[in-house]
Amino acid sequence: MENNQPAEPNSFCEIVQGHARENGDTAAFTFGDEVISFAELDAGSNRVAHALTAMGVTKGERVSFLGKNHPLYFEALLGAAKIGAVMTPVNWRLAAPEVAYILANCEARVVFVAEGFAEMLAQVSGDTPKVEHIIGIDAPDHSGTDYRTWRDAAPADPVTVPIGLEDDALQLYTSGTTGRPKGAVMTQGSILSSRAGSEGETRKWQEPVEGDVTLLAMPCFHISGTGTGIGTMVAGTNSIVLPEYDPAKALDLIENFNISKIFLVPAAIQILLNHPRVREVDFSRLKYVTYGASPIPLELMREAMEVLGCGFVQMYGMTETSGTIVALDPEDHVPEGSPRMRSVGTPMAGVELKIIDEEGAQVPANTVGEIATRSAKNMSRYWNNADATADTVDADGWLRTGDAGYLDEDGYLYIHDRVKDMIISGGENIYPAEVENAVYAHPKVADVAVIGVPDEKWGEAVKACVVVKDGENLSEADIIAHARTHIAGYKCPKSVDFIAALPRNPSGKILRRELRAPYWEGKDRGVN
Questions:
Q1: How far apart are the C-alpha atoms of 514 and 8, rounded to whole Å?
Q2: What separation, in Å, do the N-terminal and C-terminal C-alpha atoms of the chain show?
Q3: What value does the mean pLDDT take over residues 340-355?
Q4: Which residues make beta-bridge pairs with 445?
Q5: I need a surface site. Which of 4, 77, 85, 503 has the fewest CB within 10 A?
Q6: Strand runs (DSSP E) across 110-265, as ranges?
């Protein structure tokens, strides 16, 4: 593959422009029967940049996208980035009040909406007064501006807005510890620092190879989805885009497009392996499956290695670190298991790690504490939330992850528990406070605490421990149905325990660990 990129690009836009000049006919994105080449991606994103400018969008402003995965999302993201505007995708699985909060918080005046979500956008319009323009991407349910018509009316001339490494480029919302999601802001520099070779030695599985084809199956409102798409744009390779994860479609695409790389969460790997056709598929072109967001059971890993027959890479990172900061290489994955397979691997080039105690002091090897990290990959801040930023990133640039773990003598990182109360179910981050706020809004609920309990399929499941008001009656179904009106379905409790009182310490803080303890008995770590 030709490499005529700038030695030190100031944005990922420059790299994509280089691919358009040198390998313009190469496919950048494939979506059903539609193929977008790098030349078409570059020209289309130029048009988007000019069209946004004509609407008055300026450097630093946020634009939003609501919908399932679509290659034109990446064209819009690239077009926005070329004028210094910041794409802010919204989780389409959220309930209407949650969608409204994000759109209002990011202050987007332009929202791109994909098929099936115009009604949701109309539903929240009263709570999003700053939204001025809605542009439908292949959205017949939307009667306003059509994306392709809007885009094609603008010129394809190159954009001349100066973009630097320090400029905001992407804003992704994370679940909030206090019930409100926070917008993590990634810069051009933090995104570029994730590309192969940017910070030092490249691991073999990172290297872009001509002809690589990646299956983009994870949602673009997560760093796993958007990060994958930006990664293939930067690498100059093709992404096959799935609107949402579907194991049957994934197997068809693996066969028909000679897929060589996929990122999946462990729950998605399990769903794939449970498909009746999985052992009939030819996986010989599949080189690597990267996975992360939650631990994977050894038996599931063994089965995946046997059936898929490719290299596996475990990734550890978070939205706030622009994705992966630690990885367990294929060489450390052995079918018989090993102590290192319980780790998440070693830091990527340019990434510093340390384990700290409650006072922030570094602790020795093999001592459990909170994982802290420092690198160019770290977010710049939480959007309009200086207090949360200060609580997460210190003056020296160390970011507290909220995960508890330890480093061994060889620098391998092991996740032990969570310092925060976050639950990870099917790769989705869920904070108890969000769920508790939704459940507590029921007029018959006196008190509630939410915990994560082990779940064979999803890793962890949400359980609500509810105290009912005197003289009232509630069922598990009542609680779950009520929660669904306030929060996304995946955040809602999967089970409910009715108890007389919640355990609290003398200052009134709920002792969630006491509630969790019976469900995690016999497990040697507090994450599943």
A1: 52
A2: 41
A3: 93
A4: 468
A5: 4
A6: 110-114, 133-137, 145-146, 168-174, 182-187, 213-216, 238-241, 261-264
